[in-house]
Structures are given as C-alpha cells and as structure tokens.
Design goal:
Number of strands: 30
CATH architecture of the largest domain: 3-Layer(aba) Sandwich
CATH superfamily of the largest domain: ANL, N-terminal domain
Bound molecules: adenosine-5'-monophosphate-propyl ester
Largest sheet: 7 strands, mixed
CATH class of the largest domain: Alpha Beta
Strand order of the largest sheet: 5-4-17-16-18-19-20
Radius of gyration: 24 Å
Length: 637
C-alpha cells in the first residue's frame, strides 16, 4: 500500500510540484495533517530571509518521538524499527522492534532525568554506530533536550570547541567504537576534551569495546548501571514532552568558510515533515522494505535517513557499525544479502573505493533484494555511476542522486526512484516545495534554462535551518546576505535544457573530502598551530577516491632536518586539532605565498597549481611578488 503523499508518476510530480509553488501553505498543511499533533498549528508559515525569520506550523504542539515511535505501535509494534549489523560479521546482529525501541527510549529518558537533564538542555552525543546512539537521540527528543551529535572521528579539541559553543552540560559516549580493525577510544577522547572544563555535569558511558577507561567520581556513570537503576525502580513509562513546533530539535556542527564550525539548528516540526516527506518520495519506500543508509549518524545524512526519516515513516532502518572494506571489500554486499536490504544509500567516495577491488568481492553475493540505489554527499562521476548501476544494481535499480546539505535538513534536489528520470551525474529536479535558481557573479538571476551559476533557493521549505546556535547574525551572514532575499547554498551548479540540476561543487572555501565537509580556514588554523609553521594556505585538488584531497602550502621556519618528519608532525597536529579526516594529503613547503598588494592570498593560483594546471594561471601581475609563483610551480608535488 502506498503512503498517502507518495508521488507515483512523472505527471503527478509535475502537478504536485506546481501546487507546492502556487500554494505552499495549503500544500504543507495537507502533508502535515498526516502527522500526530498534540495541538494543531494556527499558521503554516512565517518567514523573511532578511533577518532571517523562519517558522513553520506556528502554534502547533507535538513530540517527534510520538511521530517516530508511539504512533506506529498499534500496527507496527512487532516490526523491526532498527536492524543493527555489527562491525565484525562474526558477532550477532540485533533487531529492535518499534515496541522495544519505545521501551528503551523511555528507559533512557528516565536515566537522563535522573541524571539532571531537563527540557532545553544541550546534550552532546559522541558514540560509535550502535543502537544506543539512536536511543540516546530519541530520548533527548522525547524529553525536550537538544542533542548535538559529534562524529566519532573528531578530536578532543573539536569536541571541546563544540561543547563550549553549545554550552552542553551532559555527554553521552561509549568506552570505544569498533571500525574495521580499529578500536577507537571514545571515552578517553572525551576525557581529553574535558580537561579544564568544569561545566559538564555528567558523562554517561555505554559499554561497547570493553576498553579500559577512567571513570571520574561524581561526573561519569555507566549507561548500563543507570538503566538497571531505572528498571529496579520500576520506572517504565515516560510521557513525551509537549514541544512547540519551532522548538529546536538538534544542533549539528558543520564547516563553513571561516575557521570555526557553525552549530546548525533544526526545529522539530519542519524538520520532521521534511525528513519524512523526502524519505518516502525520494527512495519510494514501500512498507516492509529494509532501508540501508551507510552514513554515520554523526553527519546529517544519518540523522535524516537512518533515524528521523525512516522511523517517522514506520520503516525498517538498517544501521551498520563497520566500514565497506573490512574484513574485505565485499562487506556491504554481504550486509545487503544478509538483511535483504531493498534500498542502499551511500556516498560516491565509498563507491569509488570499492570499484578498485574489481569483481571478486561480488562472488557469492546475489544482491537480489535491492530495488533502489542512492548517492549523497558529493558529485558522482560518470564512471562511478555506471559501475554502481551495473555491478550493484545489475541495471535494474533506479539510482537517485540526492543533493542537499546539513543546513537543508534533507534532500532538496533529486530524482524520485523509478518515478522521475535519472540522468547520470545530475541530481535532476527539485523536490516539491523547493524553488532553486541560478545567479551570476553579479547576483542576478539567470533566466536561460541551460546555464551555469551559483545555486540559491528563493522560498523556504520545512527543513531549512533556523539559526546557527548562539549567533543568529552568523546565520544571516553565511546564508542570507550574499544575495538579497535568497538562501545561498555555496554550491556551483549547471542546469540543462530540461531544467535538470547538476551540482559541480563548492564555490566558497569549503572542501568536500570523502563526502566530509571541511573549511580551508579551519585546516589552516590547525596547521598554523604547529610551532615551526609561519603561514599556510589550503586548497582542494581532484582525488580519485576522496573526490577532493587536501593540498597544503606551508611556509616553515623551524629546523628543517627531515622534511618527511616535519610533514608527519604537521599531520599529527591537524589530527589533534580537528581529527584524522582533515589530514592534508599533500604538503608542499614554499618560500612564500602568492599575495596581492593588500595581503590577500590568491587562492585561485594555488588551486590551479594543485590541480596541475600549471601553464594556465591567468593574470599574476597584481601580485606583490610574481616570482613566488614560479618557485611554487617548480616545487609542486
Ligand atoms: O557541495 C555539496 C555536497 O555536499 C555539501 C553539503 O555537505 P554536508 O552539509 O556535509 O551534507 C552532506 C550530506 C547531505 C553540498 O553543499 N553535496 C551533497 N550532496 C551532493 C553534493 N554534491 C553533489 N551532488 C550531491 N548529490
């Protein structure tokens, strides 16, 4: 049985799209009426992009967990909500039905409450990919606390910055996390992050790896002990807090063009409607399907398409702890077969890395259960698209290329699986409610259909961010001030003669490394912490597997004994300050950087050199010292 607001034909899509533009409020009111509200809204939308002010379903009261769990209990109580596949194929998988999830979330609400967490408090979650991570998020949401999940690859320093920015007094973590053949010591990283911080009241530690950890008296408690206490006290039911539609649901930090990551804030009702609507339409989820999104919940993709989108639809979400290449490069295919996954949603970087292993990993794997394939996070090249289509989809699964961002909550541009046509390397058409446009360098809208420009959106959709935590002006400056009355995505884009969009990559100083978003300024700040570094400039360059690699030009004036050792030291520094995901792939030591007379680094030139376009650097006459360019060219790695 189809879901009531699933689009089923191309014609239907065009009609629905038209209505969403002509009558957005009526359109979204109809969709929202399919959710469970404690109190109906009295105004659908209030907005202006100047300040910006964006509110959806004003006056409405609800709790997202009643929509993601409670309302399914009657019909789906015994159906799996989460299937969890561990890192090690030898370990047994776990299944949580909707009823079990309900019980566990309420138990953990009691744990949070017993430990002092209240509505509105910020709770930082730094865990591996285990069901307790989803339980922790949902428990926060049920009691009205605001979760901020931090990806397990971030360093102590990054956690510390985020804790301070969010004023998070509570932390939920694990002793460690398994990823491939590694055991990542999460609790000890939290301990490092907390040195000298005295505002954190409680750290709740779940056991996963049995790594020895230090538990600080009065601050640290074990998840399992706290749950046991709740059980023996007989506390079971935990009523969901009645929340305002526009109360914040979560904060998720993401990189921008400045050195400091921003806390993107999403609000409850709009985000719920958007994650659910796009989940059902983009993937064309059907009752009983197993949805396998390989992202980490530390990123927005996991929030929207492992937790909130699927659960709000009563879907079965397959959560995988491991990595695609361990114990071997057939691991994804094994997981698909084992749990009969119907939808596989992954990143181009994973596809490219698996392509390198040839056909052997497919031996003995059927992949027959697959119906829909999806990609997200970065542009997909044609070769990877074709490989995904033929080797994984066997030519019978539509591929959806979903373009979106942390700030957009869920997918904005994508084909709808099997309903609207796909076009390799194109995200294709906007979702209903999304009004994209291209602007030229002067900020004027480009009206020709076939064009390239900067991608903006001119009308709000329910999943648009509301603010950046603690600094609304930053939100305005970043997204709403470049072009008047438009949300600026930071992405460059092509549009074909049929109105299909193809995202070409960031036009600001943001890199996309293996689908992870990193600011060049953020990496430069980390490199500059090394005591021998005078100055640095970071740019991206095309990388076969990662999509973009990190190329760092560094002026170094420390002792220059062993270049390679210095490189390793600098990489260590970046790993300490941000995390291993931000490590430079190439470090070139340079005598100077190409600067204009006003002292601005000409990144365009550095980018071209890193990309290998040495002959075509454009005008360098405005440089303070044009000769420096020759020296940099000569030393290119
Ligand atoms: O440049 C776009 C790229 O990823 C950026 C957003 O990164 P993040 O906020 O981490 O969210 C990633 C997961 C949604 C965008 O500005 N991007 C995302 N999806 C695509 C993409 N580029 C091309 N094609 C996509 N499908």
């Amino acid at each position: 049985m189809a879901f009531p607001y699933q689009i089923k034909t191309l014609e239907d899509y065009h009609q629905v799209y038209r209505r969403s533009v002509d009558d957005p409020e009526g359109f979204w009111a109809d969709i929202a009426s399919h959710f469970y509200w404690r109190k109906q809204w009295n105004q659908v939308l209030e907005w202006n992009f100047k300040e910006p002010t964006i509110n959806w379903f004003l006056g409405g009261k609800l709790n997202i967990t009643e929509n993601c769990i409670d309302r399914h209990l009657g019909t789906l109580g015994n159906k799996p909500a989460i299937i969890w596949e561990p890192n090690d194929p030898e370990e047994h998988y776990r299944v949580l039905t909707y009823r079990e999830l309900h019980t566990k979330v309420m138990q953990f609400c009691n744990v949070l409450q017993n430990n002092g967490v209240k509505k509105g408090d910020r709770v930082c979650i730094y865990m591996g990919m285990i069901p307790e991570l989803a339980i922790a998020m949902l428990a926060c949401a049920r009691m009205g606390a605001i979760h901020s999940v931090i990806f397990g690859g971030f360093s102590a320093q990054s956690i510390r910055d985020r804790l301070i920015d969010a004023g998070a007094e509570y932390i939920i973590t694990c002793d460690g996390a398994f990823r491939g053949n590694k055991d990542i010591p999460l609790k000890s990283t939290i301990d490092d992050a907390l040195v000298g911080i005295d505002f954190v009241k409680r750290v709740i530690v779940a056991i996963r790896t049995h790594t020895p950890v230090s538990m600080i008296k009065g601050r640290d408690v074990w998840w399992e002990d706290e749950v046991k206490k709740v059980e023996t006290m007989g506390e079971r039911y935990f009523p969901a807090e009645e929340m305002d539609a526009n109360d914040p649901l979560f904060i998720l930090y993401t990189s921008g063009s400045t050195g400091k990551p921003k806390g993107v804030v999403h609000a409850i009702a709009g985000y719920l409607v958007w994650a659910n609507y796009t989940f059902l339409n983009v993937f064309q989820y059907e009752r009983g399907d197993v949805h396998f999104c390989t992202a980490d919940i530390g990123w927005i993709t996991g929030h929207s398409y492992i937790v909130y989108g699927p659960l709000s639809a009563g879907a079965t979400s397959l959560m995988f702890e491991g990595i695609p290449t361990w114990p071997d490069a057939g691991r994804f295919w094994e997981v698909v077969d084992k749990h009969k996954a119907n939808i596989l949603y992954t990143a181009p970087t994973a596809i490219r890395s698996l392509m390198g292993f040839g056909d052997a990993p497919f031996e003995g794997k059927s992949l027959d259960s697959l119906k829909v394939l999806g990609t997200v996070g970065e542009p997909i090249n044609e070769e990877a698209w074709n490989w995904y289509n033929t080797k994984v989809g066997k030519g019978k699964c539509p591929i959806i290329d979903t373009w979106w961002q942390t700030e957009t909550g869920a997918t904005l541009i994508s084909n709808l699986a099997g309903v609207t046509p796909s076009k390799p390397t194109y995200a294709t058409l906007p979702m209903p409610g999304v009004q994209p446009l291209l602007v030229d360098e002067n900020g004027h809208e480009i009206h020709e259909m076939e064009a390239s420009g900067n991608l903006c959106i001119k009308f709000p959709w329910p999943g648009l961010l509301r603010t950046t935590y603690g600094d609304h002006e930053r939100c305005r400056l970043n997204y709403f001030s470049t072009y008047e009355n438009l949300y600026f995505t930071g992405d460059g884009c092509l549009r074909d003669e049929n109105g299909n969009y193809r995202i070409t990559g960031r036009v600001d100083d943001v890199l996309n490394v293996s689908g992870h978003r990193l600011g060049t300024a953020e990496i430069e700040n980390a490199i500059n912490m090394h005591n021998g570094v005078v100055e640095s400039a970071v740019v991206g360059y095309p990388h076969d597997v990662k999509g973009q690699g990190v190329y760092a030009y560094i002026i170094y004036n420390g002792l220059f004994d062993d270049e390679n050792l210095i490189r390793q030291d600098i990489i260590q520094t970046v790993t300490r300050i941000i995390g291993a995901i931000a490590k430079p792939d190439k470090i070139q030591f340079v005598p100077g950087l190409p600067k204009t007379r006003s002292g601005k680094i000409m990144r365009r030139i550095l980018r071209k050199i890193a990309e290998g376009e040495i002959e075509n650097l454009g005008d360098t006459s405005t440089l303070l010292d044009p000769l420096i360019v020759e020296e940099i060219k000569n030393g290119k790695l």
